[in-house]
Write a structure and sequence with these properties.
Blueprint (H helix, E strand, L loop, with lengths): L8 H11 L3 E5 H14 L7 E5 L6 H8 L4 E4 L2 H9 L7 E4 L5 H9 L3 E4 L4 H8 L6 E5 L6 E3 L2 E4 L10 H13 L4 E5 L11 H20 L2 E6 L17 H16 L8 E4 L3 H4 L3 E12 L3 E5 L8 H5 L5 E3 L9 E6 L8 E8 L7 E4 L20 E5 L5 E5 L4 H5 L8 H6 L1
Parallel strand pairs: 1-18, 2-3, 2-11, 3-4, 4-5, 5-6, 6-9, 9-10, 10-11, 13-15
Antiparallel strand pairs: 1-12, 7-8, 12-13, 12-17, 14-17, 15-16, 18-19
Helix pairs in contact: 2-9, 7-8, 8-9
This protein binds pyridoxal-5'-phosphate.
Length: about 425
């Protein structure tokens, strides 16, 4: 499917004239349309809740949008917990799906009433020792080991992943929690990432529903919810078929009716913790072409770098690029599109066919709404860009200013000439 930018060159220049380049921009209309589609796809389940994975796009303005759909936040660190709380989420609107968790984070999560999702059985005595009694509802994270396949395709390797508990540990954990007064239980698993197939959630749900029925029988516990976590992917490449959230919702429902209803478990709530699917396509990184270089290959240097979008450098990920205003020009030039880091993997595209790029053109890097800005870092002293929210009426607002050198130097306040660094 042809990938089309959600903003025009005119709008992009308007934003650039106010906030400079590069910037990350988010499409509120798209976010809302998709959020509604998610809510509709699971409306057959009374207690359904999507807990947006804050780590994908940690911005309180974005989190707030999801409040309108009855969604919550999935957090895994102190900063994420505090951000979610400040954005107006508390109690069962916050899922704390952490791992290797420091005690103070559990203490804070307990204080704001977050739902605890324990990654490991050793976390239970740790919690008792450092925090206190368990809440009434507790979730445990499951890892079936081995490989996770759909039909005959291996999707991922849970056996190699650090997360979750073995089936035996799940039983032991539930018994232990029950003995300590826990009344309601949740089950969580994240077994494959960025799945571009409508079968991921239904397949995972089938496995978790079977496990839920078994745990109910063996441990005599009430299963309150099943958390399908994240992993629903997006089509980064134009030739990929997008997921259909309505079919995914219907697929989970079919498993629910096949397994949970006959087991007398028709009150179980379905939770999700999607990040990428909720925001990925509704964010873009806009950057200006500032240099061209002709050596053994043709290079276009832009004013963004891997510090603003790490996925291509880190995973070799494909991100589609449009040259704004030249969407209908032929892709007849072959370029490497690079940032300025002193690292040869700082390339947004390699050997990519694009329209002829002139200096000053704005490049629109698609699908950076999730795990984009969020993974930013400061290597080479490169700074984070601004984040801008494009509203449904075409107006836009700054939802995070760009980092400044003063921000970068701030942690050197132990250095005597610190003030001079900022003012130099
Ligand atoms: C990263 C993560 C998510 C979100 O994953 P996506 O692939 O962005 O949907 C959800 N839950 C947990 C525990 C995670 O670590």
């Amino acid at each position: 499917m042809k990938k089309i930018p959600f903003l025009t060159v005119k709008k992009a220049e308007e934003i650039a004239s106010k906030f400079g380049t590069p910037f990350h921009v988010y499409d509120e209309a798209g976010i809302r349309r998709n959020a509604k589609a998610v809510a509709d796809a699971f409306s057959w389940n009374k207690g359904f809740k999507e807990y947006f994975a804050v780590k994908a796009t940690p911005n309180p303005f974005i989190l707030r949008i999801f409040k309108d759909y009855g969604f919550g936040c999935d957090c895994s660190s102190m900063a994420e917990l505090k951000m979610a709380y400040a954005a107006g989420f508390s109690n069962d609107e916050i899922m704390f799906s952490s791992n290797d968790t420091p005690a103070e984070e559990y203490v804070y999560a307990a204080k704001i009433g977050a739902l605890m999702n324990f990654d490991d059985i050793t976390m239970l005595p740790y919690y008792l020792e450092h925090v206190g009694d368990f809440p009434e509802t507790v979730c445990c994270r499951y890892n079936p080991g081995g490989t996770f396949s759909i039909s005959n395709d291996i999707m991922d390797n849970p056996g190699d992943s650090k997360y979750g508990m073995t089936p035996e540990q799940m039983i032991e954990a539930f018994r232990m929690l029950k003995a300590h007064g826990v009344r309601r239980f949740g089950i969580h698993a994240f077994l494959a990432s960025n799945t571009v197939t409508d079968d991921y959630y239904p397949t995972l749900a089938g496995q978790l529903f079977e496990l839920a029925a078994e745990l109910k029988k063996k441990c005599h516990v009430d299963i309150d919810f099943i958390n399908l976590s994240g992993g629903v992917g997006i089509p980064y490449r134009p030739d990929q078929e997008p997921n259909h959230i309505d079919r995914i919702g219907a697929g989970v429902r079919a498993e629910y009716e096949k397994i949970l209803i006959p087991a007398g478990m028709d009150n179980v709530k379905i939770y999700t913790e999607m990040g990428r699917f909720m925001l990925g396509p509704y964010g873009a990184l806009v950057t200006r072409a500032i240099h061209e270089k002709h050596i053994y290959k043709e290079y276009i240097g832009v004013d963004a770098c891997a510090a603003n979008l790490m996925r291509p450098a880190m995973y070799g990920s494909y991100h589609h690029i449009s040259v704004l205003g030249k969407e209908d020009y032929p892709d007849d030039h072959r370029y490497d599109v690079t940032g300025s880091l002193c690292e040869n993997n700082d390339k947004f595209a390699i050997d990519r066919l694009l329209p002829k790029i002139d200096m000053g053109d704005l490049l629109y890097i698609h699908d950076t709404g999730a795990h984009g800005f969020a993974m930013g870092y400061n290597y080479n002293g490169r700074l984070w860009s601004a984040e801008v929210l494009l509203h449904e009426d075409g107006s836009f607002s700054l939802i995070r200013r760009a980092q400044t050198l003063a921000d970068y130097f701030a942690t050197f306040d132990c250095f005597e000439e610190y003030k001079n660094m900022e003012d130099a």
